[in-house]
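REQUEST ID: PR-0412
SUBMITTED BY: lab tech R.K.
PRIORITY: routine
TASK: structure prediction, single protein chain
INPUT:
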Amino acid sequence: MASSGFAGNNGSKIGVAQGSTPRSIGGRNAMSNAYISFTPKFHFRVTGEDVDPVGGLFWDGRSDAAELQALDPLLNPLELNNKDIPSVVRKIAAAPYAQMFKDEFGSQIFNNPNLAFAKIGVAIAAFERSSALQPFNSKYDQFIQGKSRLTVQESNGMKVFMDVKKGHCASCHLMNPNSSKPSDSLFTDFAFYATGIPRNKAIPRNANPSFFDLGLCGPDRTKPALTSNVPNDVSIEKFCGTFRMTSLRNTAERKAWMHNGFFKDLRDVVSFYATRNSDPKRWYGPKGVPNDLPTAYLGNIISDRVPFNRPASAGPALTEREIDDVVAFLKTLSDAPVQTPSPAQPNLPGVRNNPFGN
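STATUS: complete
OUTPUT:
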């Protein structure tokens, strides 16, 4: 639903989704499929000496097609838990929209369950690509088009977000406020990162202390084969524990954040990025060591760029006020009906013109 940033967990309060039965609890936070048409197919991007997994659907990039991704939850025992393909198709055939389905895919479509099942994915993917899930009508979109203005706090939050010495968020959550084209600001580069998110102990499978969700390396997918453009000295092990970055569009509407849903408040997410290095005990407990990866993969956690390369002795990367400002800016990324901007009033505080462009 739009009210949850198209990433709802079906009423679950622990950060990961509840399936069709109360005891069916998944292992990951629901990932938003809004703006899905911009997600590239999974591949390895090589830029100089830098190698990054990029793209694909799900947190681990295991599906390249929206049509296929849409079908996975239907048969997953921890999600919709349907017995098999024919049982899904029978439900569609008995639904009020069955005639619409036949009008689109043929009057005999239900006679071929496998084909009908595939067309369910086609229909869902078509909806996900529609303007209903990618309207580009947030306050930020209105702002870059000169149709709205940011408050002083929102504008300062954007500056901190973009500042290479402060948040440096825009280095990965790509944006271009100089462009009036909203699709130039998708707020993700679709790459995979390990940021050291704390362990969510409420997830049932995490009750086993030896279990770790390694994202790109499993358990919900097999390790992908490295492609020929990847240097020979790079091992797939380098990417174990990484997860695909989601877009920050509609992030303020979500009920939980990160792949394991550890965070339940957007401000805590920003605080984590600002204080992961300066106050690790706040996030990981008395040892102050990232606790949701095996020791062998702790080196995969990003530490070579601002704010993650900041020494603990330097203190938090952001002040409390700057954290609040960034959160205020992130709230401008929530899609909403377009509103007619009010006439400019010079005596009111606020940023009327985009200082970064249009």
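NOTES: The first helix runs from residue 66 to 69.
REVIEWED BY: pending
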